[in-house]
Amino acid sequence: MNRFDARAATWDDDPAKVERADAVARSIRGAVPLDRSMRLLEYGAGTGLVTQALRDSVGPVTLADTSTGMREVLHAKIAAGVLTDARVWDLDLATQPVPDEHFDLIVSVLTMHHIENIDAVLSGFAKLLHENGALCVVDLDEEDGSFHGVDFEGHRGFQRSALAAELAAAGFTDVVFQDCHHIVHDGVNYPLFLASCRHARVDDRPEVKP
Hints:
By secondary structure, the chain is an alpha/beta fold. It has helices at about 15-30, 50-55, 70-80, 120-130, 160-170; strands at about 40-45, 60-65, 85-90, 105-110, 130-140, 170-185, 190-200. The protein has a single domain, classed as 3-Layer(aba) Sandwich (Rossmann fold), CATH 3.40.50.150. Helices cover about 25% and strands about 25% of the residues. It has a seven-stranded mixed β-sheet with strand order 3-2-1-4-5-7-6, sandwiched between helices. Helix 3 links the parallel strand 2 and strand 3. Mean pLDDT is about 90; it is low at about 205-210.
C-alpha cells in the first residue's frame, strides 16, 4: 500500500493543507500568465487541492498520482462536480513511459523530494509540455532531515542552485525561484520555494558544458 493511501480520505480536513494549496495557487498565478485555454497537468496531485484553487484560471485538467487512495478521492470530487473537465492518471514518470500528450502548464507540489531519480521525471515533464509551456515546482528548501526523519529515502529538500542546474539540463530556461509558503512540523518552520520555468526551444537552451 502506498503510504499516502490511508491518509487520503481525511487529507482535506486539515486547514493547514487547504491554506497551503491556496498560497501555492496565488504564487503560481503571480509567476505564470494563466488563461482558460491552458491544459494543466498536476503531477503528484494528491487530493487535487492546488488544482481546485487554480480551476477557474485554466482549461482542462489532468491529475496524476501514484496513490490509489488519493485517486479515489479525486474521482469522488469529479463525480461530485468539485473538479470539472478533469481526468485522473496513475502515472509514475520515474518508471513508466511518458504519455503521448502535451500540456501548457505542469504543476508539482511537494512531490519531487519523494522521488529519487528526479532527472527522469524532469525529462518527462519536458516531453509533456508544449514548446514554451510552463513548469511550476513547489518544494522544500534544503533541510537537515528532520522533516521526514532518519528513515526517509528521498531528498532532504533542495538547494535552489542545484535544482536550477537540473532543470536547465532537462531543457528548461528562464528559471526563477521565489519564496512560496512554509510548513510548520513539530514546531519547526520549513520554508517552501516555487521554481517556475519554461520548456525552451532548442535554440534557446543554454549550452551545458561537460
